[in-house]
Every structure is written in structure tokens, then in C-alpha cells.
């Protein structure tokens, strides 16, 4: 038996065969795969999604400018990926558990992150801010792909508990090349773990276009491991919501893992340290501006008459409020005391670190009286 | 007290830990029907089922990475790495995740993972089956590292490791799997000496020999041989390599003034370097001679027919003891 | 776009959809995919393949018994996998470069290994025996899957040299779960490297049946990475030869990597240290005995009248000669001198190891006079 | 002589090496059009093409594993690991393959791979971007380990590393990338001091401070400050961490009798432990006081706002110097 190239072997960047329900012009189109997952969605709910995205975009703007002002060490913009993040995350239950990467500002917003949670880590005060168990969301992962295995293990635990939660992991097109991500699919498949893989293919891994990782759709890899997958327009919040409902339903009902590739675009730099002019054309960015995830919902909701002036004002006000609160949280964040550098290295007493802690305390004590 | 092999003691410890706490799950390659290539998990899948004794796909990063997720869900995974040389594909998950998650999350996420590693050489194995990677883990903050040397410690300390809320690298010397000893199966691990303490394996007054794992036996044999020649050696079994129990070592070195540290791992930046640097810091005024290292060479682990040239044996330890005593030894007249 | 489960999603152990040209009964059947690659094969050439397999089986028997007699530390039997190994390896040019695992006795035999090369490493005298550049075959790899990346890198070098060699890597069903093997496919695809992946799915990874790694055909994974693949009867030496001709032709002509899953069976234990009765039924082994890779060629050649009594006697004699030579090589292998333990740790002088070498020489010198 | 940053010197070294030998190829993430996140490969893809400056998929094991294959085919790959904390996925390929292949094959297969790692902290970076993994590599027989501290060494030693037939881990202190210095671009690397030698960065007579990488600057600053108080510090820049140039250290310690070893990496089983254990073995009779370690703590690398509590600064080094001098210091009266 010869296996030909993957039957849907369009280059990974091609936009054909990507499921959509809302066109860039804000027109709701029929989609046999997704429509059934959207039947119950009311215009007010779509408005709520739009509101989420607007707030997330505002947080992102705030984070960016805080970094530029020297208040944060770094910021990884989610600009352009609001639909992929909000749409998928809004399909989850509180009791599901999410394993995001560093770029998922929109996801942690939906999960219930507090103002300071968006900035504490980027400010360098802590390596994480929120309590993972409070919002059932792991610390944003920096090692590309490592979190996908954690999600699978967590999902194996869900199975062992006979629970019907799902675990969800977010990662990028670049991360899909990591051994860990592939092993995660293999483990998930073998153990029929209730886990959903969400790959945000934002076309770039820092300066590398997605074709360096794959000439073919990343979504096409999952089925080879026995995992059904869906490739959706990641700038279409309804498509993302629907796809995620499909995926979580699949996983929650004991059918094992599911995979979503959300085709989107990183409209900003990789991080505030990056200079995308060195590797990508303004024209490409422009073409994606035409597919902005907020614009199309705005048009759609205006046409429906749901995005009234009042609603718009309320959203703007709330976005501003959250933006200001995030800024305030950054600016008023207390500095941690020097000796806290030792805290939590171990959960139980470790004589080695304890001795170092004493020695360092003695060292610091010298300076109190101005000595040494 | 029951006489049993270290392998059996480990098996009993796993059984006990799984009985005591149903959050304990075992993961690894071939640990199910086969019972592991060393049979340490023998019969446990039959007893506890496939959900608690999990034969995994052949991918060590996958095993440790999924163990992290299970730990986050409240489980206490006990991972078996099939041989020491196969832990490296999991190194990233161990160093960046297992070791750091508690620190990263300000103590909110615990990582009670035990990573069992059949460890080190001397069994005539093929390449990659005789590695001594302990220094990597000792240097990794956030991990605890245990190396056992006898069935009783194996039984007690494996249970302690599993019960510990910190991640533990648990090193099991392969060449002692079949060595027998007395084990008190009834004693509870919480009543035993805590996991972080060293043990004076033999008292002596002239020279302190510090070691761990399978080298404890070699050191004890050396001590016996030395006593025939009137040299009294104190042997310290470290048991815990992170943290290291310096008070116990200090007491011995301050008594003898002379020390040899021996292990099978390579010398450069190995555990012996750590022990000697610390002893020198802590006991400088008590030292009569320079602390001596007797270790494996700084070479990749050799083919099995040459491994006896690599693993320090009784004679090499005694040569080191002679050096510590300022007696004639192989280095006499040789430039370092 | 929804990706369903892989279209040919039979469990990985199923024998349907496996390309065959010679049935277990020795009947040559038509195969549209493979026949074109076999047109030129003469009966004498098939006889030569049979001869190879018989000799390889004899070497394996010798290795096994040498281990049992304490002459080798370990042996990893290739029993049952002779067709997969000989068939694929015979499709190569000398200038191609092979990256095998520990089980490829048949492959290194075909590549030109000398008598002692089969046993030196298992005896523990050296970590490798043959010079990789003499037989263009890397040292048999023990770290599962690691060699697949080496093959891809080597193939990238072939491309850079504008040469038309191919690199080939052998690995098992178990190894296919390793991150490295997946990364190897990703790199191979991205760089269109002239590399052929040969996965010998022998149904077991030590005690784990292949379903622990995959419920679906391993060959189905490659196309997802953009690599065409073929699933062949690994006990059919002609099918293996043909598939490898297809794969090398593909790679050699600049089309990038190709993948072969040879479905076969490990008839012996994993190694001489293993006890398969703990995990598998005799009945399963029996069913595979019916599909023995040598038997079917024997029948086929007898029917053709090519395997004459004389030919049979010659093969038996040659197999015995090689077996005896391998035994002799093991028994007469010189012990390496103690100080050789330091040799080749570095290619250029390293003061640290050099000092150790001097110290150890001084240590050993004490014993020469019986001192110490 | 030209004044340039260390980053620029490294870029020039790569250009020179690629010009000298067309078997030299560069591999890594974002090293092409972007020129690497630190611009060390700036403009090289334009100059040498996509086949010699290769943007790879995002997988470190894949990068190092394919580099092994390229080396077997006769190439000299120079791998860039984007940040120190991302080397761990490649650890298996480095430890089991890169380090061991020459030994495994009885010298038949050479592994002339250089693995460049932007290294260590002090730049206010996020987690995993400030790691000091050097002890892992120093402990790994078969590897050479280089840590540079100035543009001239960066320029010369990177070329030496690439020309070396052994695999070299080449550590580039991130916080010195923008530090400037004089570089002789015309001198040939074969005329310079061999890669394995240390350098006396400042002569002194009272205390020897041994260090490497970015800490060399801190140590020199400390020496300057100490000289104001009449203490003469000799600073040794190790340059090579495997092998370590003990003759140079010995000469200094036998002169001063007092030694401080400082690095930013964690202390337990770190490079300082190795240096001190060896100094003690080699120079015991010359030591006036116990050798002192001034290192990072045994904690995961802290968040950036706390990193100044972790990286030893001038004051901590001087405190260590006081200890080596037997003067009042922070440990006076404190139990170890
Ligand atoms: C193991 C590892 N290697 C390298 C990096 C450096 N790095 C950070 S993000 C990134 C690109 C990731 O691209 P992608 O997965 O597509 O996610 P995106 O940034 O586009 O959201 C790289 C190379 C890392 N964080 N971890
Ligand atoms: C990285 C690594 N992990 C574990 C092992 C131990 N091990 C050796 S062979 C083997 C099974 C391999 O199965 P497969 O890939 O199917 O090859 P086969 O032995 O069947 O030829 C295992 C687990 C190893 N050699 N390397
Ligand atoms: Mg991306
Ligand atoms: Mg197999």
C-alpha cells in the first residue's frame, strides 16, 4: 500500500480548505462542519466575544506600551490572534485545564486572569503570577512545546479520575516541530486522553515562515497519529468557537484527543525585542490587516444592529478600565524582598539551600549598618 | 526482618507506596507484563491494573512530560527510566519543568515525581547502559537526588521519595539489584532516618572514605582490607546527593583529618569535586593532607571489557587512602 | 476543513493493505506498485538474496549461541527480519550511507561487514568494530531513534555536495515514538533531504506490542510530514527490494525523503537478556512462523528449479563457513590493553585526560613488580 | 587593531571561518535573514547563501542531530542555540552522540561541531533565558568547553573552536555582547595562544580570583576596588573550562596561597567545586586558608528583578576575598 502525500497537501500557508463561518467582510456563511456547533449562539453572545477580543487587544496595547516605557522587561503581543484565543477558550468549562504558551494573553483573560496577572511575569517580579489552580490554567510556557506533554498527562489524570473535564494546550506553528509536540500526540492517541491540541499557526516562528517547519497543513499531521483534526480560520471567532466545541465534545465524550489548527497571523513583532522589518514585508502584514479578527465581527454585529453606540461605548469604557487597571497593577507592583530569591526552590526543607539562605542573610545583614 | 535482594526490596516499596496512596502511579517502558527489564515492577500491573502501572510509548521526554501533567492533576507519578543512558531525552523536561515548576509557581504547583534510574556500571553491559549521570542532577537546583546502597535503604527511601513533595531522582545501582540484605518490611518509612541524612557505614579513626551507591560495598571491602594492615577507615554512605549531609561528613573528617571521596562517575565537576570543595571550606583547619578523589576517568563510559579499568576498585581506593595518609602511593613522585 | 482519521486507519498490526509480491506459500503475485521495480530481477539474483538471508540467519544463530556460551555479553537477534534487512539493503549503492540500529545484522552483512564486525561490540571489546567509512555504514545505534537525525544531516550534506547518494536509516516501531524520529521527518521534509526511512515494524518494542506506540499504520505518519511512504510485507524480500528501489529512486532524483514501513516480526527475544514468554503467546509466534521470510523464497526458487541441491549445498557450506569464521573471530579477539581505555576520548590533546592517563599509568605500573 | 563589540567580533570570526573553509556551515533558529536574535550571524546568509547558513525547524535535538550527520559527511557545523535555556532538548544528542562518537568509533569518526550558546544572565531576561549550564558540559567527557570574556578571545577562540576536530561547547556571555574591546582581525588564530590555556587577566600577589565569562569583568572591578584598600588580587580568566589549565592556576595559587573561585552558575557540583577540589589536590601545602566559592545560589534562575541577588557582584567577591584573607567577612561567626 502506497501512502501518497497527504491528500490535502496545500502549502501550510495556503488559505484554501480552511473552515470559515464569518468572512473578512463580516458575512455569515454556511458551513456544514461547524454550523451545528453554533446553532445556540445568540447575537448577544457574539457581542460578548467581540467585547472579549476588544479588551484583549486593549490589554495587549497596554502591555506593549508598558514595555516601551521600561515598565516591563518584555512583551509578547497577541495582536491579530484575538479570535483564535478568545473563540477557543470561550468553549471551555471552568473545570477544564489549559496549558498555554507565552503568547496567550487572550486565553488567560478568558480564563479569569486578574489585572496583575498579565504583567507580573513580563515585569520580572515572578516567573509566574496567577495560581494555576485558581483559573485552571498552567503558567504560560516558554519552552516551546513542553506544555503539550503536560496537557496530555493532565488529561490522563482526568481519565483516571473518571471525570469529564478536558485538558487543552496551545502552541505555535514553530513549536509543532519540537519532538515534545509529536510525542504528546503519540501519548494522547495511545491513552485516548481527553486533550485538545490548539495550534495557532500565525505564519511565523520569530523570523521563520511556517514553511520552514512544514510545507503542508499542520492540521494534517494529527490524523496520522490517530487524532482527528480541523483547520479553521483563526481570525474567525465563531469558527474557532465552533471548532473548539467540536473538539471538546469529542474529547469529553471519551473519544480521545482532537486537534485544531487555527490559521491566523501575528500582526505584531515576535516580542518587543524583535524587529520584523528584517524578515517580512509590509505587504504581507497589510494583506492580513484585511482579515482582522475584530473588524469582521464588528461589521457583522453592526449589520445585525447589535453593536449599538451604547454597546460600543460600554466596550470601549471597559477596555479602557482594564487597560488602566493593568497599567496600575504594573506600576504599583511591589518589589520582592531580596531574600525571597530563595523561596520555593523546594517544597520541603533542603539543608543545602537552607545553609545558603542563612549565609546570604548574614551577607546582606552587613549592609544594614552600612558596613562592608 | 526478612532477607531479600535490593530488587525485591524496591518492588515491595512500590507495592507498599501504591497501597498506601492511590495517587501513586507507575510509568515507564516495559514495566507492565514484563515487570521492567530488571523486574522491579514485577506483578504490580496485575495487582494494581493498567491505569496505575502504565506501559508508555518509547519516548522518555514523553514519559516525564506526561508525569508532570499527572502531578499537576494531583497524582504522584513514579517514573522508571529503563537505563541510566536513556534519561537524556527527558533532560529538558527534568531540568526546565520538573525541577523548576515549584519555584516558578511560587509553591502553588507541587512536583511529587520520583524518577527511578537503574544506574551505573559493572554489569558488563552495552554502551549507554552504564552511565553515572548523578552530577547533572545534583547541579540542578530544585531536584533531590538519592543513591541507595542496600536493600533496607532501597525499601525505606523509595517510599520516602514517593511521599516527598519535591521531585526526586532515585538512583538504583544495577550491580546491587541481586545483592541481598535484611529488610524490615513492617517499619514505617516515616519512622526511619530522614531521606537527607548520610550514614556512617563503618566507623574508623584514620581516614574517612566518602562514597555512595555500589561503591559503598567496595569502600567497605577496602576498609576491611586496610584494617588487616592496621589502618582504620571510616566509611560514609552519602545516601542523599542533594542535599548532602555535611554535618555527618564534618564530624568524621574532623576526627580523621584525612579524606578520600570515591565514585564511579567521571571526575571533572563530579560529585567528589563538590564534596571536597565543601569539606575544604568547612574543615580546612582539621585537614592533615589534601582530600583525595578516586573516580572514574574523564572518558566516555568504556566498552564492558575495559570497565574494570574505569570503576575504582578496592586497590584504587586503598591507593587513595595511602595518598591521604601521606604514605607511598602511585602518585609518589608523579607530577599531577 | 476537517481531517478525518487517517484514511487507511487499520490497527498497526493488521496485515491488510501491505504490499506483497511473494506470498507466504512462495507464489509470485502481481503488484502494480512494485512490479516495475522488479522487472530486471533474474532468478539467480533472487537466489543471491536467499543466500544472503540464509547466511544472515546463520550468523544470528552463531551470535546467539556465542552469547549463551558466555563469549558475548549480549546479542540482539535479527531472526525473522532477514528479508526486511537484506531486501532493502541490497537496493543500495556502495556510496550510499546507512544509519542502522543495534538489530541490523543483516544490513551490515550486506554492507560488507567482516567476521569480527558482527561480534566485537557485543563482546564488549569496543563500542564499535568496523570503520564506518569502509562500509559506508554508521556504528549501530543504541539510543532508539537518534540515528534518524544523523541520516537526515548526512543527506543534507549529500545535497550540499551536489551528489546523488542517498542516506538510509533503519529503526523500529518502538523508536517511531521518539521525538527524534519525528524531528528527523520534519527536517528531512523541510530540506528535501535524500534520505530513506526504513521502519522495521516487528510488532514489538521489547515487551510492548506496537499498539502502545500506534493504533494506526506507522507508514501513515510520513505523508503528514510531506514524505511519501510505502507499507510492505517485511517478510517478502522481493517486496522489500522493490520498495527500497522506489524509495531510493525518489530520493536520488531530488524528490526528497521517502519512507518504508516493513511489516515483519521479531521471532526471537528482544535480546539474549529478554524472556518473551512473560509477555507474548507462543501462538502469535507460530502464526508468524507460517510467514517465515526464508521459507517462501525457498519454495519459490525450488518451484523455479533454481534452488538445486548443489546450490543448497553451496549456501549451507558458505553459511557454515561464515558462522565458523564469526565464532573464530569472537574466540580469538584480542583483549585490549588496560591503558587503551583512554584512547580516542578526544581527537586532539586534552590536558585533563592526558594527566589522568599519566596518573593511571603510574598506578598500573605499581603492579608490574607485584608491588602495592 | 580595531575596536568592536564582542557580538561583532563573533560575527567576524564566523565570516572568517566560512571564508577559510567551505565545509563550515551554520545552523540554527532565526540565523538567516534575521541574523540571529543577537545578530551574531548578521548578513552571513546573504554572503554565503542558504545552504551554508541554514534556518532550521524549531527543534534543538533536530539541529544537533542533523549536525552530527553533516559532520559525518565531512562538514564542520557551527550550531547556534538561541538561548542557554534551550539547549536541553538537544542534551541527548550532545551527551550520547556528539561527545561519544569519536570514542565509540575508535577515532574513525570526527565530530568537529561547535555549539555556540548565548549564555548566562544579567540582562533582565525572561525565565530560561539566563541559564548557566556549563557544569553539565564540563562533566561530559568528550566535549571541550570554552567561555569567552572579551572581543579578542571571542574572535580568536571561535575560529579555533571551529578548526578543532573535537566538539566544542562555545559559551558567549550575553551581557558582554555589546561590550567593546580591541581586536586584531589580521592575526591568524593558529598564532594565538591555544584554546586550552587560561589567561592571567590581572597580576596580583595576595589573593587569586579564578573565574570566566562575564564574571571576569566583575572580578577585575573587584580587584581594582581591593587595590584601593591595599589588597592585591590576581585574576585568572579560565577561558577553557574543559580542559582547565591547572598549571596557570597552580602558579598563581602557589604565589598567593589564597583563592576565590567565582561564577554565576549554581554552586552544588559546579565548576568552582571542580577548580577548588583540583587546587586542593595540587596546591594543598601552599594554601594559607580554605579556598572560597562565590557563586550563584542553588535555586532555579530567579525572575529578572531578583537576579542581582543571584549573580555574584563586586561586593560578594570582595566578601569572599576577605574570607580568603582570614579577615572579618559575612561568614564570621556564622555556622556553615
Ligand atoms: C525549546 C525552545 N527553543 C527555542 C525557543 C526560542 N523561541 C521562543 S518563541 C520561538 C518561536 C516560536 O514560534 P511559534 O511556535 O510559531 O509560536 P509564536 O511565537 O509564533 O506564537 C522561539 C524559537 C524557546 N522558547 N524554546
Ligand atoms: C532512548 C532509549 N530509550 C530506551 C532504550 C531501551 N530500549 C532498547 S531497544 C528498545 C525497544 C526498541 O523497540 P523497536 O524500536 O521496535 O526496535 P526493535 O528492538 O523491535 O528492533 C528499548 C525500549 C534505548 N535503547 N534508548
Ligand atoms: Mg508562530
Ligand atoms: Mg520493534
From TrEMBL, chains A, C:
GO terms for molecular function: magnesium ion binding; oxidoreductase activity, acting on the aldehyde or oxo group of donors, disulfide as acceptor. CDD domains: TPP_E1_PDC_ADC_BCADC. The keyword Oxidoreductase applies. GO terms for biological process: branched-chain amino acid catabolic process. Residues 51-329 form the Dehydrogenase E1 component domain. Its cofactor is thiamine diphosphate. Keywords: Oxidoreductase, Pyruvate, Thiamine pyrophosphate. InterPro entries: Alpha-ketoacid_DH_E1_comp, DH_E1, PdhA/BkdA, THDP-binding. The keyword Aminoacyl-tRNA synthetase does not apply. This is Pyruvate dehydrogenase (Acetyl-transferring) E1 component subunit alpha. It comes from Microbacterium mitrae.
Automatic annotation (TrEMBL), chains B, D:
The keyword Lipid biosynthesis does not apply. Keywords: Oxidoreductase, Thiamine pyrophosphate. SUPFAM superfamilies: Thiamin diphosphate-binding fold (THDP-binding) (SSF52518), TK C-terminal domain-like (SSF52922). Signal peptide: none annotated. Its cofactor is thiamine diphosphate. PANTHER family: PYRUVATE DEHYDROGENASE E1 COMPONENT BETA SUBUNIT, PYRUVATE DEHYDROGENASE E1 COMPONENT SUBUNIT BETA. This is Alpha-ketoacid dehydrogenase subunit beta. It comes from Microbacterium mitrae.
Amino acid at each position: 500500500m502506497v501512502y501518497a502525500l497527504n491528500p490535502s497537501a496545500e502549502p501550510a500557508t495556503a488559505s484554501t480548505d480552511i473552515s470559515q463561518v464569518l468572512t473578512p467582510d463580516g458575512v455569515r456563511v454556511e458551513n456544514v462542519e461547524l454550523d451545528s456547533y453554533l446553532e445556540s449562539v445568540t447575537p448577544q453572545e457574539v457581542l460578548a466575544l467581540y467585547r472579549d477580543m476588544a479588551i484583549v487587544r486593549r490589554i495587549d496595547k497596554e502591555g506593549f506600551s508598558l514595555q516601551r516605557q521600561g515598565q516591563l522587561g518584555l512583551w509578547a503581543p497577541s495582536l491579530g490572534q484575538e479570535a483564535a484565543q478568545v473563540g477557543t477558550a470561550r468553549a471551555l468549562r471552568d473545570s477544564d485545564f489549559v496549558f498555554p504558551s507565552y503568547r496567550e494573553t487572550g486565553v488567560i483573560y478568558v480564563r479569569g486572569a486578574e489585572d496583575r496577572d498579565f504583567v507580573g511575569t513580563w515585569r520580572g517580579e515572578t516567573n509566574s503570577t496567577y495560581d494555576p489552580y485558581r483559573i485552571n490554567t498552567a503558567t504560560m510556557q516558554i519552552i516551546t512545546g513542553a506544555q503539550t506533554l503536560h496537557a496530555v498527562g493532565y488529561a490522563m489524570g482526568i481519565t483516571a479520575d473518571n471525570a469529564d473535564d478536558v485538558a487543552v494546550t496551545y502552541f505555535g506553528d514553530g513549536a509543532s516541530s519540537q519532538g515534545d509536540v509529536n510525542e504528546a500526540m503519540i501519548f494522547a492517541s495511545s491513552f485516548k486522553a481527553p486533550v485538545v491540541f490548539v495550534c495557532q499557526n500565525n505564519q511565523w516562528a520569530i523570523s521563520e515562515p511556517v514553511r520552514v517547519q512544514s510545507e503542508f497543513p499542520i492540521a494534517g499531521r494529527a490524523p496520522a497519529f490517530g487524532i482527528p483534526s480541523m483547520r479553521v480560520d483563526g481570525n474567525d471567532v465563531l469558527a474557532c468557537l465552533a471548532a473548539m466545541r467540536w473538539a471538546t465534545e469529542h474529547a469529553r465524550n471519551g473519544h480521545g484527543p482532537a486537534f485544531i489548527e487555527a490559521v491566523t497571523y501575528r500582526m505584531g513583532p515576535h516580542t518587543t525585542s524583535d524587529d520584523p522589518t528584517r524578515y517580512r514585508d509590509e505587504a504581507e502584514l497589510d494583506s492580513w490587516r484585511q482579515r482582522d479578527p475584530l473588524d469582521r465581527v464588528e461589521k457583522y454585529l453592526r449589520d445585525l444592529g447589535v453593536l449599538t453606540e451604547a454597546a460600543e461605548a460600554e466596550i470601549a469604557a471597559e477596555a479602557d478600565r482594564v487597560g488602566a487597571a493593568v497599567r496600575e497593577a504594573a506600576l504599583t507592583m511591589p518589589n520582592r524582598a531580596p531574600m525571597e530569591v530563595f523561596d520555593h526552590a523546594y517544597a520541603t526543607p533542603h539543608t543545602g539551600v537552607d545553609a545558603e539562605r542563612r549565609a546570604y542573610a548574614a551577607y546582606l545583614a552587613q549592609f544594614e549598618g552600612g558596613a562592608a | 526482618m526478612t532477607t531479600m535482594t535490593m530488587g525485591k526490596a524496591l518492588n515491595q516499596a512500590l507495592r507498599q507506596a501504591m497501597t498506601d496512596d492511590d495517587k501513586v502511579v507507575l510509568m515507564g517502558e516495559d514495566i507492565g507484563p514484563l515487570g521492567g527489564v530488571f523486574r522491579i515492577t514485577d506483578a504490580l500491573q496485575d495487582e494494581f491494573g493498567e491505569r496505575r502501572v502504565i506501559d508508555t510509548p518509547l519516548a522518555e521526554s514523553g514519559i516525564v512530560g506526561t508525569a508532570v501533567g499527572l502531578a499537576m492533576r494531583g497524582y504522584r507519578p513514579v517514573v522508571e527510566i529503563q537505563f541510566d543512558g536513556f534519561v537524556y531525552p527527558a533532560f529538558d523536561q527534568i531540568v526546565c519543568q520538573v525541577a523548576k515548576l515549584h519555584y516558578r509557581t511560587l509553591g502553588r504547583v507541587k512536583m511529587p515525581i520520583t524518577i527511578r534510574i537503574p544506574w551505573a556500571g559493572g554489569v558488563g553491559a552495552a554502551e549507554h547502559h552504564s552511565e553515572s549521570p548523578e552530577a547533572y542532577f545534583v547541579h540542578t537546583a530544585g531536584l533531590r537526588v538519592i543513591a541507595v546502597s542496600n536493600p533496607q535503604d532501597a525499601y525505606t527511601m523509595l517510599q520516602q521519595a514517593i511521599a516527598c513533595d519535591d521531585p526526586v531522582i532515585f538512583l538504583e545501582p544495577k550491580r546491587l539489584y541481586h545483592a541481598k540484605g535484611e529488610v524490615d518490611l513492617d517499619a514505617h518509612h516515616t519512622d526511619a532516618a530522614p531521606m537527607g541524612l548520610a550514614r556512617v557505614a563503618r566507623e574508623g579513626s584514620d581516614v574517612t572514605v566518602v562514597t555512595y551507591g555500589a561503591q559503598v560495598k567496595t569502600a567497605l571491602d577496602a576498609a576491611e582490607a586496610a584494617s588487616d594492615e592496621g589502618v582504620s577507615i571510616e566509611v560514609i554512605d552519602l545516601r542523599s546527593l542533594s542535599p548532602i549531609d555535611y554535618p555527618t561528613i564534618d564530624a568524621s573528617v574532623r576526627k580523621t583529618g584525612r579524606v578520600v571521596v570515591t565514585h564511579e562517575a567521571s571526575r571533572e565537576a563530579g560529585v567528589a569535586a563538590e564534596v571536597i570543595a565543601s569539606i575544604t571550606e568547612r574543615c580546612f583547619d582539621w585537614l592533615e593532607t589534601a582530600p583525595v578523589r578516586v573516580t572514574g576517568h574523564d572518558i566516555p563510559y568504556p566498552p564492558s571489557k575495559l570497565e574494570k579499568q574505569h570503576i575504582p576498585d578496592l586497590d584504587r581506593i586503598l591507593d587513595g587512602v595511602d595518598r591521604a595518609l601521606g604514605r607511598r602511593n602511585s602518585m609518589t613522585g608523579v607530577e599531577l
